[in-house]
Design brief:
- The protein is α/β, with parallel strands linked by helices.
- The chain has seven helices and 28 strands.
- Strand 8 and strand 9 form a beta hairpin.
- Helix 1 packs parallel to helix 6 and helix 3 packs parallel to helix 6.
- The chain starts with 9 loop residues before the first helix and ends with a strand.
Length: about 400
């Protein structure tokens, strides 16, 4: 039986993942760019909104014309115009005059603030009383308040959310340079596996990892192809991995990563052209038998056969890899502060990932550990979050406050 190489820490594995280069750049239509990672810094091509505009319905005025105005001593101004939406005012606003304006309307030249309509009293068709003093800039968005021409608005490596898409649209960007989606091929190995559409015979189980990992990869922005099930046959697995390397940026082999007579993943990875074994074993639980290798610019990854361990290692290492290939990184992981409902034992030098169920209490969130084997699906479905026991800890105590990373 082959022994593991020296176990690497999570930080060491992530550092190795950081040595893979981002993929090529491609240009996509704006409406297809959501969820993609920007490939270059994007600067404002012009001022936004590009003109001074009102934030309220009211009267555009010179601030000095309403200085000191109040209920008992209103400012009396001539009604100059009703300003239309979507059109530039025809003439400047003279002193002593007010122009009716709607929210979002363009201020006439000379106006420097807006008095809300609630603070006005029409006298007749030609005069209006304003009962609120305003300072220059009140209720006004100036022409470059949202973005000044040339300013960096979205840095390279940012995942484009609906708000970034809106900003790009506001500045007329109809095509966006993004990183190409990683192409992932998933191989599931094991004599006991049958396709999920088939009824398993005694001793057999349906293939779960192919579909769970495919969903995981797609959620991280990748394109996925399932290579099908491969029996524990060295020649067949070698052929499947070699063929996958021809088309994929990432080849995932699920199963075959624990040391054993019929487990050949490491040998096959190291037989690929320009190969280098980076990791064979990592100090985490579950997921110790994790493999990472490269073949030229391709990434080869071996995940444990148990679905729980496979998804934990995918969360710890596969997601950072897929984001890295797209030029991005996960700056934080959403979570909540919660108190453990029971103590958790751990081992020095190993990082433990414990699935928990979250519930609200009078004192905040409670995290109930789900202590089921990593091969059971029910523990995955019932889990809301993951709690990490760090390497320098022998465990966590009941009632201790922990950070629970929410599972998505």
């Amino acid at each position: 039986m082959k022994s593991f190489l020296t176990l690497k820490s999570v930080e060491e594995v992530l550092a190795l993942i950081g040595t893979f280069s981002p993929l090529d750049t491609e240009t996509v239509p704006l409406d297809e760019a959501a969820g993609r990672w920007l490939a270059q810094d994007w600067h404002a091509p012009e001022d936004l909104p590009g003109f001074d505009r009102s934030t309220v319905d009211g009267w555009a005025v010179h601030a000095r014309d309403v200085f000191g105005a109040q209920e008992g001593s209103p400012a009396l101004l001539e009604c100059a115009a009703d300003l239309s939406m979507g059109k530039a005012p025809d003439v400047p606003l003279e002193e002593g005059h007010a122009a009716r304006i709607l929210t979002g309307g363009m201020l006439p030249e000379g106006a420097d603030c807006v008095v809300m309509v609630e603070h006005s009293r029409p006298v007749n068709d030609e005069l209006v009383e304003l009962v609120r003093s305003q300072a220059p800039g009140d209720h006004v968005i100036f022409s470059d308040d949202d973005a000044a021409k040339g300013a960096l608005l979205i840095p390279s490596g940012r995942c484009l959310r609906p708000q970034e898409i809106g900003l790009l649209a506001a500045l007329g960007q109809v095509e966006v340079p993004v990183r190409r989606r990683p192409r992932v091929v998933i191989v599931s190995t094991g004599d006991e596996l049958v396709p999920c559409r088939e009824k398993p015979a005694p001793g057999q189980v349906r293939d779960v990892n192919s579909h769970s990992l495919a969903a995981f990869c797609r959620a991280a922005g990748a394109e996925v192809r399932l290579a099908g099930l491969v029996r524990d046959d060295t020649a067949l697995l070698h052929e499947t991995v070699a063929r996958a390397c021809e088309e994929a940026d990432v080849v995932l082999v699920s199963g075959g990563s624990s040391a054993g007579m019929r487990d050949h993943t490491v040998d096959i990875f190291t037989s690929m052209p320009e190969s280098e074994l980076l990791v064979h074993g990592v100090a985490i639980s579950p997921g110790k038998p994790f493999i990472l290798a490269r073949s030229g610019e391709k990434c080869l990854m071996g995940l444990p056969g148990h679905v729980g361990a496979a998804l934990i290692t995918a969360r710890a290492f596969l997601r950072p890899l897929l984001l890295r290939l797209q030029g991005g990184e996960e700056r934080f992981r959403p979570g909540v502060r919660a108190r453990l409902t029971r103590s958790l034992a751990s081992a020095q030098g190993r990082r433990d990932y414990v699935r928990v169920r979250l519930s609200r209490t009078e004192d905040g969130w409670a995290a109930e550990p789900i202590l089921l084997p990593s091969g059971l699906m029910s523990g995955l479905v019932h889990a809301d979050a993951v709690v990490v026991c760090p390497e320098n800890s022998e465990g966590l105590y009941a009632g201790e406050e922990v950070w629970a990373e929410v599972l998505r």
